[in-house]
Amino acid sequence: RFTGYAAIFSTPDAGRDVLLPGAFGRIEAAPPLVWQHDLARPVGRIEALQADQRGLKVQARLSLESTQGRDAWALLASGALNGLSIGYRARRSRLDAARRLRLLEQVELVEISLVTLPMHGEARVIALG
User: Among residues 45, 41, 24, 49, which one has the least CA distance to residue 33?
Assistant: First the structure.
């Protein structure tokens, strides 16, 4: 198992997108947990999702019965990888031209990924076990 933040609110990511608090609305079902945004490479499953003041907190379990899940766990456990990222569709956004930002007011969550380089530098695994 691991816990982390898949998305961070109110600060820009490397693409100049800012997820606003409340952007996820009510998440009806847990999205897939995949490797590097590749939907053909699942590595486990999401057990819990919660939007708090910081961002989208996730608890997930890797599938150690699969080679991909075991590899992901080995990289997490060794500290070689700890990035998280989300795949989403922007449903409602607005531009902040003065700061050159896209403010995401409503998004549809498509997937959560373990990644080498997250778009938001604070979207990380924070605990194992």
Answer: 45
Query: What type of residue is 96?
Result: D
For residue 108, count other CB atoms closer than 10 A to its CB. 14
C-alpha angle 21-89-64 in degrees, rounded to nearest 5: 90
Question: 10 Å Cβ neighbour count for 96?
Answer: 12
Mean pLDDT of 27-39: 94
Question: Which residues make beta-bridge pairs with 45?
Answer: 32, 61
pTM to 2 decimals? 0.95
Q: And the tokens for 40? A: 């053909």
Which DSSP string corresponds to 89-108?
Answer: EEEEEEEETTTTEEEEEEEE
